Structure formats: C-alpha cells, structure tokens
Amino acid sequence: xxxxxxxxxxxxxxxxxxxxxxxxxxxxxxxxxxxxxxxxxxxxxxxxxxxxxxxxxxxxxxxxxxxxxxxxxxxxxxxxxxxxxxxxxxxxxxxxxxxxxxxxxxxxxxxxxxxxxxxxxxxxxxxxxxxxxxxxxxxxxxxxxxxxxxxxxxxxxxxxxxxxxxxxxxxxxxxxxxxxxxxxxxxxxxxxxxxxxxxxxxxxxxxxxxxxxxxxxxxxxx
Length: 222
Hints:
mainly alpha; Serine Threonine Protein Phosphatase 5, Tetratricopeptide repeat; 3-stranded antiparallel beta sheet; 10 helices; 3 strands; elongated
C-alpha cells in the first residue's frame, strides 16, 4: 500500500483524494493540476498503469505531488514493478522545494537504499532533470498560465464587476473568478515561480446570476 513505509510525518494524504471532479478546462490553464487529478482517479479505480502515465504528464509540468507519488510507487513497487533507483530519482525531484513530508520521504528512502541503488538513481536523475526539474517546468507552466489568463486579467482591469463564464468552472465577477484561479495557481506553484502570473475562453454574461461554483471545484473537508 502507498505510504506504508514512510515515517509518520511523511504520511500526508495525496491531494487527489480531496478532489471531487477534474474540470477539463483546467488542462488548458494548469495542465499539471488536471493530469494529477485524473491520475488520482485512475489510481483510486485500480488502474495503476494509467495513473502513472497521468502522473508523469503532471510531473512534466512541475507538479511536485505527482513526482512524490511516482517516487513512492516505484520505490515500493505499488501498482508497478519495484524500481528503487527510479523511485529515489522521482523523490529527489519532488523534494526540490523542501516540503517537509517530501524531504522526510526522501531521507527515509535514501537510508534504506544501497550505495549501488543511490548511484543508479543519480544517473537517472541526470537524465530526468531537463524534463522534470523546476528550473525548466515552472517557467513553462507559468508562461502557459499567464497566456491563458490574459483575457480574464484584461476583463478585470476594464471592469472588475463584469460577469464572466468559464466552461466547467461556472460564472462570477471577473475579479472573483481571477482571484479563484490565482489561488489555485498559487497552490500549484507553491512559491516556485518568480513574478506574478495570473484563465482562458470566457464569455460576458448579459444578465447577472448567482455564482454557481458547481461540483468541479469542490473539496472534501476544510
């Protein structure tokens, strides 16, 4: 089972277990978030191979939780044949931002790995670095997010109270929708991006209606 080997402080609940739906529109704005969400549902449904494919796609957009879960799955052989060096490489990438849980998982895994496994992990990490490290993925993800939110930011600058609709996310004032999306982006980037980037096809709503957040953005628990 995932997380069974970890020290207590590293046994955080994967983010995907708190997500109810994965709005397709998020693939345009925050693809890492979207692919991780889909991967979480595939894993929960018992399709580990499909989950790994989605987690790898999320990891390519700098999603640290996806890299963390990939590390655990490969290191422990959870849903895939055990490959401890590959698991170590993924966990090293996940720990780039020094999250306490991810640091603890990496330290534990390294202590329980052989010298040969750690050396193999270093070689794998060197090959994976250009595709998955923050210095490459964060810039790409932030540029995409900024480009796709440009229209919403312009609408907010013109009239923050204008009503807009974003497919899959609902409607509200331009400023409230922008704030909602930026909060989600801040959780995704977790301080890794430099500068502010602020989403995508939107429509002006003629008749204001009560904002319906819908189920797409719900989270279980506080």
